[in-house]
Design brief:
single chain, sporulation, mainly alpha
Length: about 70
Amino acid sequence: MNFQIRQAIAANVAGQNAQELSGIVEDAIERGEEHLLPGLGVFLEKWWNVADEQERQHFTQKLATQFN
């Protein structure tokens, strides 16, 4: 993913509260539009970078169940 995309997405959501960010994620998922996937990827990357090992393991276990 291009670094400029990461910066643009971060700038677009800067200052949003948890409820607003939740709305963004839910809207992107409901729409199902491919062009929204990079934004969700940036959200995941930001979370992954601050998550501890237990949170990461829990997430990946849940994710694995969705693809099995």
